[in-house]
Amino acid sequence: MLRPFSRSLSTHGRLCYSSIAARQEASHPTVTETQDDEDNLQDQIRRRRKTEWKRRQGGQTFLDHLIINVRGGNGGDGCVAFHREKWKPMGPPSGGSGGRGGDVYILPTPNLTTLSSIPKRIRGAAGANGQGTWQNGKNAPPTIIKVPLGTVLRELLPGDPRRAKDEWEAEEEGLEGLGPEDRRAKLRDDRWVHYPRYADDNINRDVFKQAEASLYREERARRWARKQRALSPINVDLDKTEEVVVSDDAPLGTGRHEWLGQLVARGGSGGLGNPHFLSPINRSPKFATRGHDGERITLSLELKILADIGLVGMPNAGKSTLLRALTGGRAKTEVASYAFTTLNPIVGVIRVAEDGTFEGALQGERVFEETAIEEERLRQCELSETEDQDQLLRSEDSLSDAEQRTGHHFDIHETFRFTVADNPGLISRASENVGLGHSFLRSMERSLALVYVVDLSRPDPWDELRDLKDELEKYLPGMSDKAHMVIANKADLLGGDGDQEAVEEAREKLRRLEEYVKSEMVVKTADGERILDVIPASAKLSQNTKKVVRLMQNYVQQARTVRV
To answer: What positions does the domain Obg occupy (predicted)?
Structure first.
């Protein structure tokens, strides 16, 4: 790594030792100043580890937050060589320059849904070294890291304990503990390539000292430019892909370059070969420069799910069952009777026809039980699978093309589609990272509309609704304004063959819930006030799901129109 040298050895030594003393003094603050910060940091780390442990259960590989260290590729070294051929025993200098190190880009792609495939340490390819007969080294190709759409990149600033040292700090660390002479020798060894057995002779020559001074001036300029870029750290939202469009007026034969993504770390420049130092007073330069180190940067990657509708509810409110009912069982969510069954967001696609029919309603399965019960039912039906399949094929052949069917048959009827995200259950103090905490709330920020899901069988569903709204507001003020609907799940209690007393109690709960929403859940908008829709539904029995889909479609259409 190139680093500016001082004008004199004594001045350089004073600067070095004073900077070390300042770092040591800054690294030992008083206990009173740091005790509270350390306690808060340890508490956050403990909660984060507990959350990640929960989410890794059952072989889960979903990951939506990651810290990565990125290094651009190092530049290739310049070459010290002299041309040799017949009748020319003393040819001119012919060392080639080194190739440039590879840059590192981060490219968003819709094919990924998790950050689990991204390595924590990324290093760009190094440029090739220069060779004799004026052969320059090959530039290294760029390194492209693919991330899911909706990933937010944030550069970690100095002072953050998770941040790794940059290229200048890493070199300074390698020089600590060395004496003045050893320090000078180390700096020169990292910057120069000498012809064999000519290192000591080069150091004492005036032309080398002039080249060294010029090199340090260039290095100071590069360090200044690096500091200027650090004043505006990377903070990019990769929520869309871009396409490079070639103008129609471009000259014939203009190449089309692909969009590589967001540049995060530049590769180092290649070193200069010895012909670069040829001058009237130095006809035989026997030194060349080494390649520069690539940039080093630490990034925080945060994935925020891109879903049109986000389901918000307490644990076991029926969100996973509702998503399965809306998708006809195609969404593979875990359904069970214990809390936090869903540990990671699950996104389902809802396809709607022109008459309002959605694909999930066409599935033969209408009752959605717990996952364990359905798996047992599936095992029992495996014996008669062949007969049922033959019967299904005969029934499909009898249908006309105009009749709606699932799968690719529904493509000709589809006029609108949107996505719904089933998220982990939200509990009180989730905004303080309790439970799954921010892991849940982070996935809700991108949703165009939010839908509350409450359990009508619980004693006070309106209290759950109040807690849900409060936690959204504590995490991000104004986030609850995205809410459009309240789904009173398990509404099959309102009628049927159950106890009449229980039916009346459920109807009274629904009435009180509607009154609470009208009085306490009013959303203020630019056009006035908006009251949330309260829809009773039964996800288990797929009751009233068509109305739910129709309202969700309206919310998404309105939100997309506003964004455009």
So the answer is: 60-306
